[in-house]
Design brief:
Blueprint: H1 23-44, H2 50-68, H3 74-96, H4 104-122, H5 125-148, H6 150-156, H7 159-166, H8 171-176, H9 212-233, H10 238-250, H11 254-268, H12 271-279, H13 281-295, H14 298-301, H15 306-317, H16 322-325, H17 339-360, H18 367-383, H19 393-406, H20 411-418, H21 422-426
């Protein structure tokens, strides 16, 4: 993913078709909504198991890779192929040790690779803005329907039943969740209830994502895009800021509200300092998860808040042995509440270092690209402290697509391009991109 920068105009996969028929929009929106569509089918037509979800992901990822493949040159292809061969070798070693041949880690890496390439090869700023706007409208419209007409919504979209059918939710949990996801309602009692604007009630809106964590993460991505676009265009994108914050609030994403503040702080820092801080974040995150649980008081240990999640993540990681750290044997317990544990189990410590090095080595032709790349890296590194949700295609597709788009956008070019009329845009001269090598930027 991270070694591919902006390519020359002759490699661009631009389309003159209406935006709703263009591959980038269909691919990104499709990746965001296919689980929502499967939930409808499961509720109203026929039971849908986990195999249908896997099949949809395979079709989407492989189609995006085939579409974006022409922008790769030989050296870049070798880097991507080498990363995938490492993961195949790791899976083969697990199989030899009697642990089975798992391919989920390959899927976790292919999502950012595929959608970064899609953005770098086919997305200009105008297209990216339209995709973000379309996604925001869909998420808010469905979210408002869910919030105001919950019974009607769950009659057509029984989220709990869908996850029970997939085997990722117990029947007892479904009975307690009002047909929403298990975390779709904040529990009452000690440390319970809604955190953001409590008068809205304990319902956490999930919208098309079916679970509120991904909805909150989507709000963060929209906020980051609004921040970077405002700096690029030198005008504030009030609508996107408001939309991102609205989604964070209705999903009651405490992490989302916290991380938006981090985004603003990072944007104020000089680029050289920001890059160094983001580059070391995974190390800081791992240390926090390992060290903080032992230093916490009992009050934090039983809390359902951010520190309670960090404590839980640390206790999961504390059960890892050396083979788990190197990804050679999968843990015998659930790691979804500890993103670093999940990443180490799938990629190994070596794979995680490789992934992070490639991300932070990505180069583009715009100073705003480096800001968005750093924000995306910080989002990934901080969120892994409490969750494996950065790996989901539901939000990852849009995030990595936008990183790819920005990798070929220039500061001046984006402002000029956004003011062109449709006819001038269709007849524009080829855009000269910048090919990227793997070189440290910090």
């Amino acid at each position: 993913m991270s070694v591919i920068g902006a390519q020359s105009g002759r490699h661009a996969l631009a389309s003159r078709r209406p935006i709703w028929l263009q591959v980038p929009l269909v691919a990104v929106i499709g990746a965001m909504t296919f689980n929502f569509a499967l939930c409808f089918v499961n509720t109203n037509v026929v039971g849908v198991g986990v195999s249908a979800v896997i099949g949809c992901e395979v079709v989407i990822i492989s189609s995006v890779l085939l579409y974006a493949y022409p922008i790769l040159d030989y050296r870049q292809f070798l880097v991507v192929a080498s990363a995938l061969l490492y993961l195949l070798a790791l899976s083969a070693l697990r199989a030899l040790m009697g642990e089975g041949f798992g391919v989920k880690s390959i899927r976790d890496v292919l999502i950012p690779v595929a959608f970064f390439l899609l953005g770098a090869g086919s997305g200009d700023m105008k297209t990216a803005d339209k995709i973000v706007q379309a996604a925001v409208l869909i998420v808010i419209a469905v979210g408002l329907f869910e919030y105001f007409f919950t019974d009607t919504f769950t009659r057509f979209f029984n989220i709990a039943g869908f996850y029970v059918e997939r085997g990722t939710m117990d029947t007892s949990q479904a009975q307690q969740s009002s047909n929403l996801f298990v975390s779709g309602m904040r529990p009452e009692g000690f440390n319970g209830g809604r955190n953001l604007l409590p008068f809205l009630g304990n319902h956490r809106v999930s919208s098309i994502f079916l679970e509120p964590v991904s909805a909150g993460n989507f709000g963060i991505i929209v906020f980051m895009w609004a921040l970077v676009r405002s700096l690029m265009e030198r005008r504030i994108f009030w609508g996107l800021f408001a939309s991102g914050l609205l989604i964070i609030v209705v999903s009651d994403s405490r992490f989302g509200a916290f991380f938006c503040g981090i985004c603003l702080l990072l944007a104020l820092l000089p680029a050289s300092i920001r890059i160094v801080l983001v580059a070391v974040l995974p190390v800081c995150g791992l240390l926090a998860v390992v060290v903080l649980p032992d230093a916490m008081s009992e009050q934090y240990r039983i809390s359902a808040g951010l520190m309670g999640r960090v404590d839980l993540a640390g206790r999961i990681l504390d059960r890892f042995d050396a083979l788990n750290w190197f990804g050679l044997t999968p843990p015998e317990f659930v790691t979804s509440d500890s993103g670093y544990a999940y990443a180490l189990a799938g990629l190994g410590i070596i794979g995680l270092i490789i992934f992070w090095t490639l991300l932070m080595s990505t180069r583009g032709s715009s100073s705003r690209f480096y800001l968005f790349r750093d924000l995306a890296g910080a989002y990934f590194a901080v969120l892994l402290c409490i969750s494996n949700s950065p790996f989901t295609i539901k939000t990852g597709a849009l995030l990595w697509f936008l990183v790819g788009v920005l990798s070929r956008a220039s500061d001046a070019g984006s402002r000029l391009g956004s003011r062109r009329s449709g006819s001038r845009h269709a007849n524009r001269a080829p855009v000269r991109g910048v090919a990227c090598d793997v070189k440290p930027t910090a």
